[in-house]
Each structure stands twice: as structure tokens, then as C-alpha cells.
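Below is a typical protein record.
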Amino acid sequence: MTPAAIHLAAEAAGRESAKVTDWGARIAWVIGLLVFIGFVYWLMRQGWKWRGALQGDLPELPAAPDGLPAHRLAMTGRYHGSTTAGQWLDRIVAHGLGVRSRVELTLTDAGLDVVRPGATDFFVPAAQLRGARLDKGIAGKVLTEGGLLVVTWAHGDQLIDSGFRSDRAAEHAAWVEAINDMNQSITTEGAER
């Protein structure tokens, strides 16, 4: 060991940490920090409620009718939220559409049945489906390119994008094709009438 290293080691061994003498000030800082965190959380919750109140004109979500026809496709995965169509950051929170959850999707000739354990289930009639696409983000959630199935549907006078991610992402392309084919056949039937 060099003399300089020996000198530094001796100096370091002789020093001690300063004693904590002002416990009252430290406790006050911790309490103040906890109050600040609680206040920020309260503000975030108020913002969520305010957004829900602004979207209060959105009609109630339809429930699945009894006796759905046989399913075309089914998948399990995650529901990542709904936004105003084309506005991937404009989250819709009314009627529980802003709550992320597990999901069981079933596509039938009658429409899209969305079952969400622990959240509000809803049904999108086939006539309300406007299309589907692969995307990478919705409602502040960003995934890999094409890692998200986004279904566009009409509810009331508003177009809504809902984002889903299957447990098996390879299924997404089949869902996009099936929903777009269904939408095209409904549009063609309507034009022929």
C-alpha cells in the first residue's frame, strides 16, 4: 500500500457520521411529503371524476342480448381502454370505459361481446362496428408496432376506439380481417337496400 492510501484509510477510519439531532424537523418533512403525495393523488382522482362528468352525455353501454349466435372468433387478453376515434390520448372514462382489465372477446354475427371481469361488460352490435386495425398505442399505453387490436365503433353520436391485446398477439390479424369483412358486408347490404 502506498503512503497516501494508508493516510486516506486512517482518516476514513477516524471519521464518523454526524449524529441525527433534530428528529422533529425530519419527522415534519416526512409528514409534509406524505401530505403532498396524498394531495396529488386527490387531484388526480378529481380529474378522473371531472372527465367522467364531461362525458356524461355518452349513452349507457348496451348489454349482450340473450341467445347470441355461434362465435366467429374468441380471445382472451387485456382491455387497454377506449378513446375518441382517432385521438389516442383522449381517454373515455364514462361508464367504466377507462378502466383497464382482463377481457374475453367474442365476435359473432350479432356483434362484439366484451366481457371484463371486475369491470363493466358491454356489447357492440354488428351494425355499430366501423372497422379494426393494428396499432401501437391507445389511452397512454404504448406497445410494439402492431401489438394492439383497435376496434372502432359507433356509440350514440360518437365514434370510439377500443384497444385490446390478446394473450396470443398472432391472433390480431385474423380479428382485423374478420371485423373489417363484417363491416364491409353490412355496408354493402345497406347500400343495396
Strands lie at 71-84, 101-108, 111-115, 122-125, 129-135, 137-138, 141-142, 148-155, 158-166.
